[in-house]
Amino acid sequence: MPIALVYITLSTLATFRATRSRQGVSRDRLTRFFFGELSAGLIFVGGLGLVIHALGGAYLVAAGIILGVLCSMLAIWSLFVGLGLELER
Question: Is 56 within 8 Å of 49 (Cβ atoms)?
């Protein structure tokens, strides 16, 4: 739970600062931010549910972990596709 809370805080701060920059925030970064926050939020609420023995905590933690893994796989795939396009040039 503390790690999820730290992640939520730091990623929100980084995205908020990026919106203030000249470059702005890309749609890809905003999408990753949303799904990352959702994943960390599910883990945090699931951990809270496990502590108070309510809310179906283990199911929420599992859903958060699965969503986090899927987001990571999507980010890696995007990286490899981008690298492949750069190598073709």
Answer: yes
Tokens of 11: 């990623």
Determine the Cα–Cα distance for residues 9 and 44; give it in Å rounded to an integer.
12
pTM of the model: 0.73
Which pair of structure tokens corresponds to residue 17? 């600062």
Chain segment 9-56, per-residue pLDDT in tens: 998 888 888 777 777 777 777 888 888 888 988 998 898 888 888 777
Secondary structure in 3-state letters for the chain = CHHHHHHHHHHHHHHHHHHCCCCCCCHHHHHHHHHHHHHHHHHHHHHHHHHHCCCCHHHHHHHHHHHHHHHHHHHHHHHHHHHHHHHHC
Compute the Cα dihedral for 34, 39, 43, 46 and give only its sign.
Answer: positive
- Determine the distance from the C-alpha atom of residue 79 to the mean position of all C-alpha atoms in its chain, rounded to a whole number: 16
